[in-house]
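cache lookup: miss for this entity combination. No prior model stored, computing from scratch. Input as submitted by user K.M.:
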Amino acid sequence: MIEFHDVTLGYPGSDLLTAVSMTLQPGSFHFLTGPSGAGKTSLIKLCYGELAPNGGRVEIFGQDSAAMSRDETARMRRRIGIVHQDCQFLDHLPLDENVALPLEVAGQKADPEALTELLSWVGLAAQARALPPSLSGGERQRAALARAVIMSPDMILADEPTGNVDWDMSLKILKLLAELNRMGKTVLMATHDLNLIRAAKGLTSARVLRIQGKRLQLAGSDL
Amino acid sequence: MSRLSILAPLFGGRTGADRVVPSTGPTALLTTLTAAAMAFLAVFALALSMATGRLADRWAGSLARSATIRISAPADQIDRQTAKVLEVLEQTPGVEFARATTPDETRKLLEPWLGPDLPVEDLPLPQLVEVTESEAGFDAEGLRLRLAAEAPGAVLDDHERWRAPLVALAERIRTIGLLSLALISGATAAMITLAAQAALAANGQVIRALRLIGAEDRYIARAFVRRFTLRTLAGALAGTFAGMLAIALMPAVAEEDGFLTGLGFLGLQWLWPLAIPALAAILAFAATRAAAFRVLRTVR
């Protein structure tokens, strides 16, 4: 699904990632961990083509990301649900329209019932017409998750989705991601919260990738 | 994608792409007002250009076919020389009509300078002969030579000396009018580009969020292009009609060759200003589209 071949990323004389090779298989669940500034967000951005590698090759759905046109990149992203720590919403549109936006952008109509069901799944049905600035951090994260999955993507990339929420909300988001994984979605979740990784045991079969010294390592065994 | 499909954003109802960009009140109003002001000025520049064009044509056309012969001679010779001049003119190919002015006409000519009670008969004034050329025109140099031989006091003035700079002046003013139109167009395009870039910069988060969820550049650009094109079109329509109204209501002083009183449009020329809103909309479309794609290229 996503393959890194000897990928290097950084500035001349100052690499952030070096010789990174990995494969994310369909249906897999990976945690990505490492200290702050290690390059977790950059690695996630490489996965959806926001960053291009300085060396090596990133293949997304079998296509070299560096060779994709802007329109190809846009279409590729419709197959990937992306959740960032700082969820980016269109603040002037209500929550349900924000969540349905990927469909709109792809030229599809949102089914109102399915949309309500999706908002209920993330516990935000009551806030459907609320504007994003009025939502709490946890609500925004769940809304971002709903927006990420509305196109039924093949893969979910979540970059510190629990960074701004309390433990209970972190668990709730983790459970939603685990549920998506059970539905066959590939998940890559960046987090520096080792407790959360431990809490995933029993929820899903995940592997832990760690960025250490600019390199990517497989940390420990399967959970 | 066909070439015409890039115009698709302009037609049809409000699209989803329109909603993704928040309305920017002050920028919207400024764009519309500036477009209206520019269109208003463009109407006047166009009117100036057309009026001077007509003036140049009129001066060139009417004066080119007329000439004057001035006969300065002692009182006892003036009638004889006048008769000789008329005889020569009758025989000159290219002269359609010639006649000597009467003392009354001479008095009227001099009245603005010397008053109404001028004793024309007592003054040694030259006799004037009006000459109208045929389409083919006459040989001015040949006529001068014949007049010098037959009527030594006669001097031919074919108006060329003072007609040429006037026509050149009118032509120059027409060029300045057209240049003004070009400058107004350029300023409008620059203004819309700046406004569009400001709107794009102010909506950086929106653009990043849309790219993140898989929006293609043309989807994002569509919202900005449509909005700025329609705003400009609305402003330009208002400005154009205001300009046309102002010109239509301009006081009509009955001075046929007056310069400012001729400022305006005649007949089908009134259709020309209607091209201004269309041109403004095309400029806005092109300027916003270029600005949008330039900004979008900076966001992966």
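stored under new cache key. Chain A touches chain B at residues 49-52, 70-71, 73-78, 82, 84, 88-93, 97, 101-102, 104-106, 147, 151 (CB under 8 Å).
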